[in-house]
Amino acid sequence: MAYWFQDPGIKSLLPLATSTSIKGLVTFFNSPALVIGANSLAEAFMPQPSIVDIFTTRCERKRAFFVTDEFSERFARKASKVLEGAGFATCIWNRALPEAPIDSVRECAAEMTRFEPDMILAVGGGSVIDTAKAAWVLYERPDVTDLGQVHPLNLLGLRKKAGLAAIPTTSGTGSECTMAAVLHDTETRRKVPIANGDLFPDIAILDPEFTMSMPPTLTAGTGLDALAHAVDGVMTPASNDITDAMGLRAIRLIFRYLPRAYRNGKDREARLRMHIASSMAGMCFGQNSCALTHGFGHAVGGLFGIHHGLSVGMFIPYAMQYYRSVTEKYLEICDVLAIPGRSPERRFASLMKRVKGLFGELDVPPSFRALGIERAAFEARMEEMVLFALEDIDTFFSPRPVTREQAERILRCAYDGRDVDF
Ligand SMILES: [Fe+2]
């Protein structure tokens, strides 16, 4: 399969299209309509239009297709019942798989095409929402035979058949608020990010009740994913004032509420604030891109089978250390975290301590060695990791370019838990 992110022409255009150097031309900010709060699917009287009212006005044919997985199916069934009560015909497809393999996307699209919905509801974590986005493309555009070619410069023209609503059951991917989806090519064992302005969902329902049963390790991994989105989204030169507002607030919320949600999954306030933080982080990086946390996290995580959020989260300190020689934007992160210091250097050192302290509270190891990867195995995949990291589209949005040699050094620092001091 050919991937759009290997095309040198597209690669060179993307960072330019969003960089601050030409930002004066035009900037878009896209967001779904957000429904925020517990008990979002209640049928009791509400003073304002309910979710059912919103769906009813948007769907002339009233045909709702749910994309979910075995874990989140119970939430999809709950939402489906509410819509059936309003006269919708519904269909639940519950075979979404972790990492959204492309074969699974095709199976979902075939079912979707048979059912002919005018609303698609993705109920689940990031892989479920990403599966729904990619299947939606194939449903609307059967002429698109190669998902690896769906990129931000295409004009897809979706929504002629259906809209998309996302009901996340984890707080981290932010996919409910982004134009991206990360698929998995099982043949090449590569992550395949697709992105297009049409892929922003129309509606996102942020109900903390759906996240209460997440186990602690998933809470930590997904929460660190959100933190990586916010940190990179703020640090990339493609950021702007609106995305910064989203990202900086998300960072503050994550530092405050992620440890609480990790310690006590039933802490409703912490779950709600993490859900909001995750979506805000999504709106931050989703308008432009992540950077090295994801470029490197994808490479290592894909090759060693590490959870996405954990692998990208573990790169946060190393990426920030690498950015530091070209930008002082980290000082804005210090501001929102109320990190004092007489000099930028001291404040940065304190910020690194806070990040490592957060890792400690979440029982996240500080290095890939501590995670249990053998040195020989890590070194044996070095060439592939460097290649994948340098080819990853997120790497192109780094505030500081990366050479092959620097990529190797960053990877070895992250393996040993050493500071990136070059
Ligand atoms: Fe991510």
Structure description:
The chain has 422 residues and is an alpha/beta fold. 48% of the residues lie in helices and 10% in strands. It contains 16 helices and 8 strands. The protein has helices spanning 8-18, 51-58, 73-85, 102-115, 126-140, 216-235, 241-263, 268-285, 292-304, 308-314, 316-323, 330-336, 344-361, 375-380, 382-391, 404-416, and strands at residues 33-36, 63-67, 89-93, 119-124, 163-168, 180-185, 190-195, 203-206. The strands form 2 sheets. The protein has a 6-stranded parallel beta sheet, with helices on both faces. The mean pLDDT is 92. It binds fe (ii) ion. Fe (ii) ion is lined by residues 173, 225, 229, 294, 308, 312.
Oligomer: single chain
Beta-strand fraction estimate:
5-15%
Q: Would you tell me which CATH topology of the largest domain applies?
A: Dehydroquinate synthase-like, alpha domain
Q: Could you say what the CATH architecture of the largest domain is?
A: Up-down Bundle
CATH superfamily of the largest domain: Dehydroquinate synthase-like - alpha domain
- Helix/strand-derived category reads alpha/beta
Mean residue pLDDT? 92
Q: Strand order across the biggest sheet?
A: 1-8-5-4-2-3
What helical percentage do the residues reach? 40-55%
Unreliable sequence segments? none
Number of domains: 2
Secondary-structure element order, N to C: HEHEHEHEHEEEEHHHHHHHHHHH
Question: What CATH first level of the largest domain would be assigned?
Answer: Mainly Alpha
Bound ligands, each once: fe (ii) ion
Count of DSSP H/I helices: 16
Terminal CA distance reads 36 Å
